[in-house]
Amino acid sequence: MMIGLMAEAREPCTMLDKTTSPDGQGGFTRAWVDGASFHAAIVKDTSIEARTAEKQGLSEVYSVYVDKELALEYHDVFRRNSDGAVFRVTSEIKDSTTPDRASFSVGMVSAERWVLT
Hints:
Blueprint: H1 4-9, E1 11-22, E2 28-44, H2 48-55, E3 61-66, E4 77-80, E5 86-89, E6 107-113
Antiparallel strand pairs: 1-2, 1-4, 2-3, 3-6, 4-5, 5-6
């Protein structure tokens, strides 16, 4: 359970699952399909380091806050429904969660803005 402003900042998101199917010529094609829905608070990293990295052509970096039970995994891909922005998780949620005895349940992962391939 998230509390206060963090709960208000959450917005609908959709997991994206990569699938493969035969292409009819002995190979296969890849596609991304919608998976489970969830809510997350997504905040862009605006530190000097992040802005410098962006200017050098590196990805935009975000902090993503979810209920820790969601357990986003490294390289999970999801879409923010409001604008279609796609993100790929770049850290492990187990490294940044509230303690079990806390009155709220929040986990944080880092993510990069990503283009589906």
